[in-house]
Each structure stands twice: as structure tokens, then as C-alpha cells.
Specification:
The protein is an alpha+beta fold. The chain contains 9 helices and 9 strands. The strands form 2 sheets. A 5-stranded mixed β-sheet has the order 5-4-6-3-7. The protein has a 4-stranded antiparallel β-sheet with strand order 1-8-2-9, with helices on both faces. Helix 4 links the parallel strand 4 and strand 5.
Length: about 290
Amino acid sequence: MVPWLPGGSADHARLLAELASRQLGQPIIVENRPGVSGTLGPALMAQEPRGDGHLIGLMPITVFRIPAMMRRPSFDPMVDFTWIIHLSGYGFGVVVRTDGPYRTWEEFLDHAKANPGRVSYASPGVGSSPHITMERIAASRGIDFLHVPFRGGADTVQALLQGSVDCIADGTSWAPLVQDGTFRLLVVWSAERAKRFPEARTLRETGIDIVSDSPFGIAGPKNMDPGIVRALHDALKPALFDPRHVAMLERFDMTVRYLDSADYAEYARRLNIEESEAVRRLGLRMD
């Protein structure tokens, strides 16, 4: 299960599945289940009573955030999943329309600060990395943005094209429209400048000490047999490093960030602490 809409960077999962299928000798069917900031798919997987390896899913960082935003979460990330392999992280940035008033990141922030609650940004959902990061930026600069959540990159791009939001804060589904001059990239959120857009500064270069790349991997339901986990890991790892998959990741400004099952489980424990604390610190709630 892929917890995002088809299209854009989420489609790397289809190539990964195709390559891993060859390793396993049987097909892997990709089903897109967007919703609840990328946690609808994981929530459905958490209800799966059989950990037989026939249902696995892409795990966005929101699986550690959304439960902390709810009084009665539908799953516990530290109880309900078996961590199989960590894959990568996303490239994020903020884009505006080229025919709009903003030419620089500083101009955008200054205007937003002078007009509290009136400058809107589209994100792929409440609790998503773009949402959390924009609110961290707002808190650091005393800004009150208007958050407009959508289900995925295709929807955020359409919203900005229609002029219903002032900017997009999202992964690089906006890249083709930056390259053709329709959108302007104001800033990227990676530790280093994006290879495709070397002219765009990082947040750190603008004086905001934030790096956000939303790491993700693949997990299954709880209590999976270790032999099944090992077989899935051993099929997915060569697919992750396959040159065709690496090239597709790079096309979306993503890099390989491999962790095996044990290291991914430990990383998940750390992320759960860090992300749930960030949600509580910002006071974000869904109910």
C-alpha cells in the first residue's frame, strides 16, 4: 500500500515493486490509499490480523505524528508494525507562481508577517512534513500562515495553478512547473542545495536552522515471522539500489538512505519520540 495519490514522487514505489517482484518471483500489486496525511494505508495495515508478508506498506513519517495528534489513535507505531527496510527521504521546497508578487523567500516571509492569517500555503495534509515544517518556520519568525491541506502533490499543484493558495510547501511534484517557468522556487529544505535547482538556497542559508526531508521505509503488520521479514528485505534491498530506481529517486531529488530491519526498527523508535514531541510542542491536534 502506498499512502499517497498516484503521480509524482510516490510513483517510485511502483518501480520498486516491479524490481522486487523479480527477486521474489511473484508479482507485487501496488494499491494507492491516500488520506489522513499518509496514515490511512498504515492504519488499515495495522488492522491486518495476519503477518504473512502478503500485505506491506510505505511508511511516511506521519505515522509517528498523527497518533500524537489524536485522543484515540487507531494505531500505535511502536506496537502495530514490523519494520522491514528504510528507503529514502523526500526533497521539499516552497514554490509560488512566477506571475505573483514574491521574488525571494525574504519577501514572502515579510509579506506573511505583515498580513497575519492571510498568506496561505498548500500542503499534502495535516501533520505532514510540509505542514510541520511551515509551522516551525512560522513559530521561528512570528508568522501566522493559513494552512490549506490537500491529499497529495497533484492537488497542491492544481491549487496554486488556479490561484486558490499563495504557495505550495511540498515535495518536488512542482519541479516541472519550476523548470518551465510557471512556478518560482523560493527555498529548499534539504541539508544541501538540490542538484536540479542549485540556485535555490536552503533554509539554513536563509538563517532558519531547519532541515526537513521526511524519511520513509517499508513495514508490515505486527508479529511478522522473522524469516518472512528477511525474505522481503532481501528482495527489496537490491531493488532499492537498482540503477533504474536510484535514477528515479534522483529525478525527484531523493537519495538512498538504506537501513536494514534491525536498524530501521531502532530508527523508528527514535523518530517516534522526536516527532511526537514536536507535535506536542507545536500544539497540533486533529480532534
